[in-house]
C-alpha cells in the first residue's frame, strides 16, 4: 500500500486525512488512485 503522506511524519490529527494511492496484492497493483 502506498499512501500520500508518511504516517510517522505528520501530526496525529491529520492521519484520518491520508489517502491510499495504490494497493498491491500478490505483487500486482489492484487499486490505483486516478
List keywords for this structure.
single chain, mainly beta, 3-stranded antiparallel sheet, elongated
Describe this entry's structure for a reader.
This protein has a three-stranded antiparallel beta sheet with strand order 1-2-3, with no helix packed on it. β2 and β3 (28-32) form a beta hairpin. The protein starts with a strand and ends with a strand. It has strands at 2-3, 20-25, 28-32. The protein has no helices and three strands. The mean pLDDT is 97. The protein is mainly beta and 34 residues long. It is 0% helix and 38% strand.
For the largest beta sheet, what order do the strands appear in spatially?
A: 1-2-3
What is the count of helical runs? 0
Distance between the termini: 15 Å
Query: Can you tell me the residue ranges where pLDDT is under 50 for at least 5 consecutive residues?
Result: none
> Structural class of the helix and strand makeup?
mainly beta
Rounded radius of gyration (Å): 11 Å
Shape: elongated
List the helices and strands and how they pair.
Elements: E1 2-3, E2 20-25, E3 28-32
Antiparallel strand pairs: 1-2, 2-3
Give a quick precis of the structure.
The chain has 34 residues and is mainly beta. It has no helices and three strands.
Amino acid at each position: 500500500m502506498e499512501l500520500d503522506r508518511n504516517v510517522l511524519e505528520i501530526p496525529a490529527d491529520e492521519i484520518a486525512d491520508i489517502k491510499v494511492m495504490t494497493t498491491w496484492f500478490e505483487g500486482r497493483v489492484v487499486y490505483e488512485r486516478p
